[in-house]
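Annex B.
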Amino acid sequence: MPIRFYFDVESGRETIRDRDGVEAADLAEALAEARSVIREMADAVCADDPGTAWTLVVRDATGAVVARLPIRR
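DUF6894 domain-containing protein: predicted structure tokens.
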């Protein structure tokens, strides 16, 4: 049965919450999807504010943080 995971984007100053999430078979599949999301958004996020460190925070369906991945170009 698929598990819902949420990908929040945060810096030290703000958090953009993922309200929809994605379904994945397990954490490994969710992390692969998260890395794909990072590749798609890294240029835009880093270009908008190059001095800020951004992180993709992966939460499970209960809201618990299960991974934190840096967003880099």
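The longest helix spans residues 27-48. The chain has one domain: 3-71. Further annotation is deferred to the next reporting cycle.
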